[in-house]
Structure formats: structure tokens, C-alpha cells
Amino acid sequence: MKQKSLRILYSSILILSLFLCACHSLPQRASLQAVQQRGVLLVGATGDYQPMSFLDPKTKEYVGFDAMLAEDFASYLEVKLVYVPTTWPTLMEDTLAGKFDMALCGITITEARKQQALMSNGYLRNGKTLLCRAEDVAKYPNLEAINRPEVRVMENPGGLNEKFARANLPKATLLIHPVNEEIPRLIAEGKADVMITEIMEAEYYASRDSRLAAPLLEAPFTQGLLGALMPPGSESLLNAFNRFLMHERASGRLYKLRDINMGPRKK
Predict the structure, then answer these.
(1) Cα–Cα distance between 102 and 245 in angstroms, integer?
(2) Residues 163 and 239 in one domain
(3) Same-domain check for residues 88 and 159
(4) Angle between helices 235-251 and 65-77 in degrees, nearest 10
């Protein structure tokens, strides 16, 4: 009887130990209290998306609309801001693994993302449109005109731009280029013809390079909003971010951030 009791005790201890180890290995979810106690907000960013969140190769600092929004949110919480690099192909995986408290880098709110993780309220209008050479504007009035074998569409891998191109432009020649911020220059130089991207990015590059144009900014192929992405279980931080967005909108700060990072549209 004594040996049986000891075996039961040892088994219970072993099960408890395994349970504690398993719990310890689970990613720590980003609660508002945890972030404030840590004193640091961990923000995931791809760093390749002008004018939203871009890692400047010279200064090694993140710049853009979302970079400034992240700074504002960290100040709102009275904590420090620390970036955690991620990529578009691994964005959801890194989010679910709890590698950062939130991702903020020009992320479109979609039902697919909301089924896996948490997404904030939208803070900026978004939608798929095209970027092309200024001399070719008349060639591409719609998707049908782009969906031809002779049209070279260049996208970065793993994001919604590539997914949209594959789904809607099956006849076009799709070129995958690993460095997103290089694609507009390659189009301007004639290495590709069209980039399907968000209206913010298309407007940004068209306003800064006279060789480029974004003719469908007011009539994008899709309509959407940008939002922050967070791991499941981060509801308290999500609620805090949504309250923060209300404050930024009411104060006019959101519109100021857009003007700072976009500037006037090219006529």
C-alpha cells in the first residue's frame, strides 16, 4: 500500500512538473498590465513599407506613419518603445508566438487575420491599387488591362499584395522581388510594369518620383482599413490601443501624422 501511494505521489509530481514546463514554454500574452510593469512596449515591424513603417538603413531607426503612431502609443502608456523585426511571410506566425506585444507596420484588417489573432479598430483608409510608370497610365485603366501575359507585375513575397496578384491577375507575368522598397524604382527603370500595392504606398512613391504614377487612388480595387495586430489573449492591450486611437483622432493627431509622412499629392 505504501509503495502504491508513493507511485501515485511520484506520478502526480511528474504530471505537475510537465504541466508547469508546458505553461512556461507558452508565449506570454501582451496584457496592458504586463506591458506597463515591464516598462517596454514590443512592436513588431517589417521595416520595408514606406510611408508606414520603414527601417532607415542610414540611421537604423524606424520612420513613417506607423512608426510615429507607435511612439505616440508608447508615450500614452508611459513606457519605452522597442522594435522587434518581422517579415510579411512570418508576420502571423511571429504574432501568435508572442514575439512582440503588437505589430504595427501598415497591416490591413482582414477577416482571415481576425480569425487567428486580434486586430484593432481601423485608423487609416486603405485599399489595393496600382503603381506604374507615368508614361503608361493610359495602358492600365483596370485589372483586365493588367491581366495580360505581356504585363510584368512585381510584388514582394508573403504579403497580401502577392496574394491579390495571384488571385486576380492569373494571366499576367508575376515577378517576386524580395525587397519591397526596391520595387517602385525597378518599375521606374523598366524592370517591371506594375506593382499592386496599397494606396498609401502608391501615393507615396508617385509623389516622390516623377517617373511613376498612381492613377487609381480614388478608385482602388479594394476598400479597407489599416490596424494593429495582436496575439489572442491581448484584449486589455487592444482596448487600450482603441482608446488611444479615439484620442489621436479627436485631437487631430492622426491627420497630422498623415500630412507629415505623405505631403501634398503630385498633380
Answers:
(1) 14
(2) no
(3) no
(4) 110
Of the residues 190, 213, 236, the one at which a domain ends = 213
Say whether 249 sits in a helix, a strand or coil.
Answer: helix
Q: Domain residues for 54?
A: 32-125+224-262
Among the ranges given (15-19, 122-126, 210-214), the one the predictor scored with the smallest mean pLDDT: 15-19
* Total tally of structural domains belonging to the chain: 2
How many beta carbons lie within 10 A of that of residue 14, not counting itself? 10
- Same-domain pairing of 208 and 228: no
Q: Return the pLDDT at 189.
A: 97
Question: What was the pLDDT predicted at 54?
Answer: 94
Asked if 208 and 249 sit in the same domain, the reply is no
Q: How confident is the model at residue 30 (pLDDT cuts 50, 70, 90)?
A: low
Q: What is the CATH number of the domain that holds 87?
A: 3.40.190.10
DSSP helix/strand/coil, 26: coil
Long-range contacts of 62-70 (CB under 8 A, 24+ apart): 64/261, 65/106, 65/124, 65/200, 65/257, 65/258, 65/260, 65/261, 65/262, 66/104, 66/105, 66/106, 66/226, 68/257, 68/260, 68/261, 69/104, 69/123, 69/248, 69/257, 70/41, 70/43, 70/45, 70/104
Handedness of CA 32, 38, 39, 43 (dihedral sign): negative
Residues 224-265 have pLDDT tens digits of: 999 999 999 999 999 999 999 999 999 999 999 988 987 654
